[in-house]
Amino acid sequence: MKFWRRSFAVISMLFCAFILAACGKSSANGSTYEPKELKIQFVPSSNATTIEAKAKPLEGLLKKELGIPVKVSVSTDYNTIVEAMGSKKVDVGFLPPDAYVLAHKQYGSKVLLQAERFGVKEPNDQSTSEMVNFYRSQILVRKNSGITKLSDLKGKKIAVQDTTSTAGWIFPIVSLYKQGININKDNIKTVQVKGHDQGVLAVYNGNADAAFVFQGARKIVTKDAPDVMDKVVPLYTTAKIPNDTITVRKDLSEKWQKKLKQAFKNIAKSKEGHEIIASVYSHQGYADSKDSNFDIIREYDKIAEKLNK
């Protein structure tokens, strides 16, 4: 009898220890938040008003998938959405890679999915049939500008995005640095514009000598500038950059992370959903992602941090 009592006591203690350990793990992860209304925010890659109008229909599609109200909005810039996720005012962010790395570092935000797009090839940004999980940044100039090599950018005016933009700042300035050109020490003037389309137009209209944009950005202004492909050309194309992310706040429960993954994948495969994500960010689909996919961003960030000081 004593043997069974002791055995029962030992088993009970082990069971309690297991439960406590499991609870401790859940608490450590902080995965406890389950939304009653889902707040999603985009970062504008072009005109913010246009992006919001295109993204709004996602509210209805996601509501059908998730069974709760969904609110879609557009932030003013990358930093704003990172802070909004950190302060738990936004649950889900469509973040470019560098903004994701910042959000993960500062607030523990979690990457769920990585966008897939058709590949792009030069000279005229033609789309390929291959689905890829990366893109590139370009430095654009006017064809008749006389700027034919990177060293010609010294003393020139460059249209850029904010300093957390991967394609609009980080990769171009690090690429220049590796070629012996310092964005801060070679008499280069930078002017920040809102959206990569504005960067292209700044060069097209002669308001800037060059622009840092994602490869393929010229296509989004062809309606306003039909001859942009002839007048604005790439001077330099960078190394591969991991595609955009769908990122969630740190404390979102595992259950909701899984639900969101499946919801976005389902929407991307539907006709209406695919049209929306393709028109907003040229996304064609979504694949599971992980934090280590963005280590190359961290490498470039270290150099960029030195240059930004």
Automatic annotation (TrEMBL):
Signal sequence interval, chain numbering: 1-21
Family matches, as InterPro entries: PhnD (IPR005770)
GO biological process, one term: transmembrane transport
Any one cellular-component term (Gene Ontology): ATP-binding cassette (ABC) transporter complex
Source taxon at top rank: Bacteria
Stored SUPFAM superfamilies: Periplasmic binding protein-like II
Stated family: Belongs to the phosphate/phosphite/phosphonate binding protein family.
Protein name: Phosphate phosphonate ABC transporter periplasmic protein
Organism from which the protein derives: Liquorilactobacillus satsumensis DSM 16230 = JCM 12392
